[in-house]
Structure formats: structure tokens, C-alpha cells
Amino acid sequence: MKIGMLGTGPVGRNLATKLVQLGHEVKMGSRTADNKDATAWAQANGAKASRGTFADAAAFGEIIFNVTNGQHSLEALKSAGEKNLNGKILVDVANPLDFSTGELKLTVSNTDSLGEQVQRAFPKAKVVKALNTVNTDIQVNPSLLPGDHDLFISGDDKAAKAKVTELLKSFGWKSIIDLGGIKSARGQEALLLMFMSLSNAMPNEYFNYKVVRKKR
Amino acid sequence: MKIGMLGTGPVGRNLATKLVQLGHEVKMGSRTADNKDATAWAQANGAKASRGTFADAAAFGEIIFNVTNGQHSLEALKSAGEKNLNGKILVDVANPLDFSTGELKLTVSNTDSLGEQVQRAFPKAKVVKALNTVNTDIQVNPSLLPGDHDLFISGDDKAAKAKVTELLKSFGWKSIIDLGGIKSARGQEALLLMFMSLSNAMPNEYFNYKVVRKKR
């Protein structure tokens, strides 16, 4: 499959590398076509890896990943171009984090979410919120953690969620819980506040949740 | 131990009953001394169960539980009286929920929490946030869910957290994760947004999280 990866940070590079390893063609997009990180990544990852602008990557992909800084995601997606997103699956991995005050806060939460903002801004894209609840190494290698643990997806388009679920299973995810419409991205993004609390209690960021349910 | 239970709703009655069953003396407090639910609860639970005003219950307890509606907790605690809370452990179980718009939102979140508000309002109380992340039946009977699953506590006073941990273990909780200072209540309260998203995906509200950690 052809995939557009919007963003060149560690999360984007990790996901892009995994996708190339799985046989997909990935174009990594950034504000400028000659971004240093994207160029280095493309050079290191063979013929199926390429780079360009946000618009180049979005035009290229059948599926688009938003892995930009959550504070700037809407701007980056505008730069990618609505026509390049319309009708496509847009996997929103970004977290709307603001560290500018020295302590983490979400730029949107509680009564709205970045996932919803993206869906409202691009109503013809099929936004699926996923992968934002775990650290980047676990995103692409869930077996780093023992036993069962859960990933969550949110989105209004069922077929899009099914497609993303299939892709995530190819990463090694065994349990993917469909939370419902894109509004449920509020829950996934709120987990970031718990992530920050738990990170302080844990020796590292290598943890995730298993949802334990009542015995029948 | 003598325990003051501030609040007469299902969560308060359930916790109060459990505490009486464990041999503690519990006084349930409400705005008026003759609250119907508190009276019925006290009559049904024997000599160790009693009821009174918020102030009566707070004066009675060595440990105080706040199980009032989160929107009105600060007001209820003021009514309980600062002098009746000073120096005592105050277990804050409340969630700052507002359903008035027809959809759940938190009245405080992200950059603050009810736990922190309570601690700021009553600086000489030892506030411990706990139990707000699971439904009331699981609070008092964690074995309703299979295997291991986690409860969280937050608070600035280590001895208070140790005491509350001991009490929670007597409820049957085996794994209680200390998230750190009361500021980490933000994480616990944010879980409510995830709770709402997950509730829609689950057959019922009988679920909890197990934190899965990296293999060593």
C-alpha cells in the first residue's frame, strides 16, 4: 500500500520504517521537501522510502498518518491540502500537547479533542484516532510488553477503522478496542494525562493498559 | 477505626457498608442530619453505623471519605468544617462530573484537578485521591474482575497514602500504584473521559485496567 507519513519526528520515522519493513511504500512529508530527517530516513530505508512536502506525501498516500506535533497538526494538514486528504483514511496519531509552561497540558481536551478538530476541518477525510496512547517503540512492537494489552481506535467510518485495525494487526497488535465514533478520541487523548502521572511512578515509559473485564 | 463518610449516594453507601463489614465504625454525613438515605443505611447496618450532618461525620472520623457529587464537594467539605478535617486523612473519591449539558464533561481537568482543589482548600488535611477510577461494585469487591488489575492513589503525604493503601488492601485490592503527589490526581480524574469512551464499547461498566510493564 502507498502511505503518506506527515511528520518527521521519532514517531513518524519509527512508524514509517515499520511500514516499509512490512512491504509498503512510504513517502515522508514535511514543511519543506528537503527536510534533513526525512532525507536521512529515505536514504536509509531503500527504494520504498521517499520524502517530499506535506502535500507530496498526502497526494502519494492511500492512507495518511498524521504524526506532526499536535499543536501544529491542523496547520500541517492544511498545508498537505484538503484535496489530497478527501476520501482517504487519515490516521491521527498526534497528541495535542503543550510543554511551553514547563508542565504538560493538553491544548484541547474534555469537551473536544484533536481527533474531532481534524475531522471537522477535513470532513471528507476518514479520520481514525489510534496509536497515541503508547510510546513509539511499543507502537511498532507491542510484543515489547508481556501478555495481552490493548490498543484503542476511534472514528466515524467503520470501513476505515477495519482497514486500520488490519494494518495495526500486521504490526503485532492482537487486541484493538473500537471505542466508537471520533468523539471517543477524547478518551484516548485524556490518557495522556494519566500517562504523565504513571510515567512518574514507573521506571520508564514502556507500559500499556490491559482492559480487564467482568467474568461472565 | 472511626470513619466519616461524607455523602449518601450509592458510592458512599457501598463504601460505608463495606467498612462496617470490616469492623469499622462509620458515620454517614449529609447536608441535613435526617437525610432519608443515610437514615435507612444506618438502620440497616447495625450498631457501628450512624448518621449525622457533614460536620458530625467529619468530627467523628479519624479518616474521612469524600463521596459527594464532585461539583459540590468543596461546598460540602466547607460545611463539614475545616477544623474537623485538619490533620486527618481525607480520601477523595469524587469525580468532578457535569452532566448538565447532556454529555459528560469534567468541571476541572488538564491543568488542575478536584483532588488538588480540595488539598488547596484544606491545606492541613491529608488528601489522598483514590477509588474514583472504577465503578462502585468493583471499589468494594475487586475480585469481581478476573486476575490482576490496578488501583491508583495520589497524595502529598506518604504516611497517609500508606494508611489508605492498607485500608484498600483490606477491601481486596492487591495492586495499588502510587502515582505520586496530589497533582497526579489529574491522571486519575482524566481516566473518567476514557471511562465514558470505554463504557460505550463494553457491555457494562465492570472493567478496570491492568498496567502491563516491560519485561526486564
Task: Explain what this protein looks like in three dimensions.
Two copies of one chain form a homodimer. Chain A contains nine helices and eleven strands. Chain A is globular, with a radius of gyration of 16 Å. In chain A, the strands form two sheets. Chain A has an eight-stranded mixed beta sheet with strand order 3-2-1-4-5-8-9-10, sandwiched between helices. In chain A, a hairpin with a 6-residue loop joins strand 6 and strand 7 (105-106). Chain A has one domain (2-201): 3-Layer(aba) Sandwich (Rossmann fold). The first copy, chain A, has helices spanning 10-21, 36-44, 54-60, 73-80, 82-85, 114-121, 136-140, 158-171, 185-201; strands spanning 2-6, 25-30, 49-53, 63-66, 89-92, 97-98, 105-106, 126-130, 150-155, 175-180, 207-213. Chain A is α/β, with parallel strands linked by helices. In chain A, 39% of the residues lie in helices and 24% in strands. Chain A binds chain B through residues 105-106, 109-111, 144-149, 152, 154, 177-180, 184, 186-188, 190-198, 200-202, 204, 206-215, and chain B through 105-106, 109-111, 144-149, 152, 154, 177-180, 184, 186-188, 190-198, 200-202, 204, 206-215.
- Supply the helix-strand structural class of chain A: alpha/beta
Write the CATH homologous superfamily of chain A.
NAD(P)-binding Rossmann-like Domain
H and E order of chain A: EHEHEHEHHEEEHEHEHEHE
Instruction: Report the biggest beta sheet of chain A as strand number plus sense, adding barrel if it closes.
Output: 8 strands, mixed
* CATH fold-level label of chain A: Rossmann fold
- Number of DSSP strands of chain A? 11
Main interface by residue count: A-B, 44 and 44 residues
Q: How helical, in percent, are the residues of chain A?
A: 25-40%
Strand content of chain A: 15-25%
Number of helices of chain A: 9
Q: What is the CATH architecture descriptor of chain A? A: 3-Layer(aba) Sandwich
User: Could you say which overall geometry of chain A the principal axes of the C-alpha atoms support?
Assistant: globular
CATH class of chain A: Alpha Beta
Could you name the ranges of chain A where pLDDT drops below 50 across 5 or more consecutive residues? Answer: none
Distance between the termini of chain A: 40 Å
What topology, given as strand order, has the largest sheet of chain A? 3-2-1-4-5-8-9-10
| Rg value of chain A | 16 Å
Task: State mean pLDDT of chain A (0 to 100 scale).
Answer: 96
- The quaternary structure here is homodimer
Number of folding domains of chain A?
Answer: 1
